[in-house]
């Protein structure tokens, strides 16, 4: 079946015509072949009667498009698409998007669509940085509004209000444009259908890297309770946040969440979130010199941890303000110089990883799953046979990264491998592996010595027993029968020499017995 002939705006018509005969029935595949931007190139498009099949329309923006009689009944990702101003008479919508009457709702009334307010950030940015390229802020604003369309916070507000509020906090700190863009996009990869590769393609590698850093920190927050490991968690966050802007966005994110924590209905959840803020994020803010944010975080956390005590304090301090003005960065002379000189190099020689239950393990950089296993428990290390990192099987020599979740697979009867000594980096792992190697070599020598001595005594025509060997120990200056076997098995003592020392009357060899060099 040949794809339908589609009519797009003149700006992209040439590119589409060139691929109309492409061997695909997929609208999305056709768009990709044509090199079309789903967020821009379908504004006003003529898509009448198009069968979209089972395509994923996440991120598509059909503003003002003509979709009359189009079939979207089997599509996916509709809640991440936008249809503002589109003509939709006769559109076949998915059955789960039908209104109670059984008739399809118009796009402008569908529950997942929110109106995009005008971006008010750019004038504020230009106030303190007149040369700033605010076009990328506007672009990020629109993308975030589209990506979060239909999502709601617990208090019922459109979710998009949150990234805007985080960006507002950073604007108040007079941060650079890329930090503001990162704030707007900081939840897009984690909470919507957009991929990091799409962020990089549109906003560049630097912003994608910042968004990725914030995303990793968000995922760390979702792990199990870390109250008893707060200091280690501090180190992990600082190690991951190699660019201070990642941490500044995360702190602003936490600050806005604390400002709206009262809307969370579950009191236990509020208390847990507040305690985590007090024990982890407020100290982090202090550590990087953001005292104003630290103070507000502590104050807000205290109101939820000890509401009665806080109310009493307010009563006594009616006229005093609890928070300082957010002006820590305002007096800095050069933003670029500030950001360049405050790269977080702390703990760059360490990696911090999680057990499957969420416990943090700190290790030297270059550590492997074997080092991790021994850090958990000696028995786990000794019996380790395989490892999964972030759910994927990896070689035991794999080098761990910050934030990795490591699962060690053990086997009953498993033992350390001599090969491990070539790549483990922790002293505990190395000493255990070398101890095992020594014990293994000793056992092998003991077994070999026992066999070799039995053969030598048999050839001499005499019986051998451990009791019979005891008189020879003094002559050979060896402490025990076991050491005697090991000396023979390792080649430091000739078996014939032991026969002669045990039975002097059987002197058949010309030289004295070979005695270990260590006497």
What does the model show?
By secondary structure, the chain is mainly alpha-helical. It folds into four domains: 1-106, no CATH class; 121-338, Orthogonal Bundle (Hypothetical protein af1432), CATH 1.10.3210.10; 360-425, Ubiquitin-like (UB roll), CATH 3.10.20.30; 440-506, no CATH class. Helices cover 46% and strands 5% of the residues. It contains 21 helices and five strands. It has helices spanning 10-17, 27-33, 121-128, 135-147, 161-172, 177-185, 188-191, 196-203, 205-221, 230-240, 244-259, 267-287, 291-305, 307-316, 335-341, 369-376, 378-382, 427-460, 466-476, 481-489, 495-502; strands at residues 350-354, 360-364, 384-389, 392-394, 406-410. The strands form two sheets. A three-stranded antiparallel sheet has the order 4-3-5. Strand 1 and strand 2 (360-364) form a beta hairpin. Helix 4 packs parallel to helix 6, helix 8 packs antiparallel against helix 9 and helix 11 packs parallel to helix 13. It starts with 9 loop residues before the first helix and ends in a 17-residue tail after the last helix. 35% of the residues are buried.
Write a concise synopsis of the structure shown:
With 519 residues, the chain is mainly alpha-helical. It is built from 21 helices and 5 strands.
Secondary-structure blueprint:
Blueprint: H1 10-17, H2 27-33, H3 121-128, H4 135-147, H5 161-172, H6 177-185, H7 188-191, H8 196-203, H9 205-221, H10 230-240, H11 244-259, H12 267-287, H13 291-305, H14 307-316, H15 335-341, E1 350-354, E2 360-364, H16 369-376, H17 378-382, E3 384-389, E4 392-394, E5 406-410, H18 427-460, H19 466-476, H20 481-489, H21 495-502
Antiparallel strand pairs: 1-2, 3-4, 3-5
